[in-house]
Amino acid sequence: MIRVFNTLGRRKEVFNPYSPPLVGMYVCGPTVYDYTHIGHARTFTVFDAIKRYLRLRGYDVFHVQNITDIDDKIINRAREEGRDWREIVSEYSRDYLEGLGSLGIQIDHHPRVTDHISDIIRFVEGLIEKGYAYVAESGSVYFEVDKYPGYGMLSGHLSKEAWRQEEDVLHEKKSPYDFALWKAAKPGEPSWESPWGRGRPGWHIECSVMSSRYLGSRIDIHGGGVDLVFPHHENERAQSESYFGHRWVRYWLHASYLTIKGEKMSKSLGNIIPLREALREWGPGPLRLWLLSSHYRSNLDYSEEALGQYRRLYERLRQAADSIGRRLEKAEPKGRLGDGELETVERLKGVARRWHEAMSDDFNMGKAMSSLWEFTTIYFREVEQTESYTLLWLSWRILTGFNSVYAFAPDIVEARRPERSLEDSLVQALVDVRSELRRRRMYDLADEIRNRLAQLGFVLHDKGEKTEWRRR
C-alpha cells in the first residue's frame, strides 16, 4: 500500500487515484529567464522518480510539466539585456531541456503558455461568468478571493492579512489579496487580443489551464517546489475549483529546498550552481543518485563530499550491472541451493522488501537509498563469488528495479536476462586471447591488450588463470 503526504491537510493518505491504474501528474516547470540550477533539478528529479516508482508498481502515469514562456521575469530580463523576449525564452528553454535529457528525465508532455492563450482566455471568461472574477478599468481581470471559502487551506495561511499580493496594483483591486488572471498590456510588452483588450495571462492561471487541458478536471498529483505552495498553488486551487465546481487535485506533493551550507540558493547570496556545471563536474548518474538521497520533503544540502560518495555508489552499481550481465550468460540453472546460498537469497529479498517499504511510505528516498548500498555489499561479498544462476537472476531483478527509478544505467531497459552486446562480445574475445597469451607466457602481448583495453575504459582483473573485466 502506497501512502503519500498530502500538503492539503498535512497528513499521509493512502494513494488512491481517481481512475486507477491511470495517474495524471502535473509538475510546475520553469519560467525560462535564466539557466536551470541544481535546485530546479532536485524538484524535477524527485517527481521523475515518483513517477517511475508508480510505474514500477503498475500505475500508468501521464506526466505533464509546463514551460512558462511569458512572464514578468522574462520581460524584465529581455529589457535588461536589450534582447527580444523570444530569444531569452529560446536560450533558457534549450538549457532546461538539455539538462532534463542528461538526467534521464522524460516528460510525457511539455506545454508552453504561449501555445494556450485562447484556452486561457476561455477559462478566464468562465470565471467571470460564474461570478468569481471581475474586470478592472485598466482591462486587467482579477480573481475575487472572498468568493472562494477554502482559500488559505492549502498553504495554512488562514489570515487575510497574509494573503496580500501584487502590491503594485492595489488601487484597482477590490481586495489587496485578489490576484491577476489577465494583465492589461503595458507599452513595449508582448500582448495578445482578448475580450478585455490587449494583455497577457497572469502567472497562476497558466498552470490551471494547461494542467486541466491535458489531464482533465480531476488531477491525481500536482507537484512542485515547496516555495510554490503560496501563492502559486493556493491560487491555482482557488481558481480551478471555482471553475470546475468540485475538488480538483487529490494529492498535493511538494519537494523541499536544495541548500548550500544551510542557506537556500539565491542570486543575492551568489551561491547558484547551474545544472550544466554540476553535470560536467559529477556526471548525470552520480548527480541523480545524490539528488534522490534524502526524503523529498527534507532539505538537501550541497556537499562535494556527499557527491563523491554517490559517485562511488554509482560506480559500484554499474560494476554490479556489468558483472551480473556477463555471469548470467554463463550460469546455468541448477537444482537445490546450498545453505549459504539460501541465506544470501533471504538477505537479497530483505533488501528489496525494505526498499519497497521505504518508497511506499511517502517515497522516503533517503531511507530507500540505504538499500542500494546494502545491495552492492551483498553482491560483491557473496553473489559475485558464486556461479549460482538463482542468486545472479535475483540480483539482476533487484538491480533493474532500482534502475527503473534511479536511472543510473540507462542502457538497462527492463528486468530480463541480458543479451551480450557486440561490444561485450569483442571485449570478451580479446580477454580470451589474452588469457591464451598468458598461458603461453607471451606476457608482452598480453600486457599490450590490457593497456589498450584500459585506454578504452575496460579494467581487467586477473584471478589466477581466470580474468574478469568491467567498464571503468
- Overall average pLDDT: 92
Query: Can you say what the CATH homologous superfamily of the largest domain is?
Result: HUPs
**Rg (C-alpha, Å):** 27 Å
CATH domain class name of the largest domain: Alpha Beta
Which features characterize this protein?
alpha/beta; Four Helix Bundle (Hemerythrin (Met), subunit A); four-stranded antiparallel β-sheet; Rossmann fold; 3 domains; 14 helices
What would you note in describing this structure?
The structure is a single chain. The chain is an alpha/beta fold and 472 residues long. The protein has three domains: 299 residues, Rossmann fold (3-Layer(aba) Sandwich), CATH 3.40.50; 93 residues, Four Helix Bundle (Hemerythrin (Met), subunit A) (Up-down Bundle), CATH 1.20.120; 50 residues. 47% of the residues lie in helices and 15% in strands. It has 14 helices and 15 strands. Strands 4-3-9-10 form a four-stranded parallel beta sheet, sandwiched between helices. The protein has a four-stranded antiparallel beta sheet with strand order 5-6-7-8. The protein has a three-stranded mixed beta sheet with strand order 12-11-13. Helix 7 crosses helix 8, helix 9 crosses helix 11 and helix 11 runs antiparallel to helix 12. The longest helix has 27 residues. It is elongated, with a radius of gyration of 27 Å. About 1% of the residues have low confidence.
What's this model, at a glance?
The protein has 472 residues and is α/β, with parallel strands linked by helices.
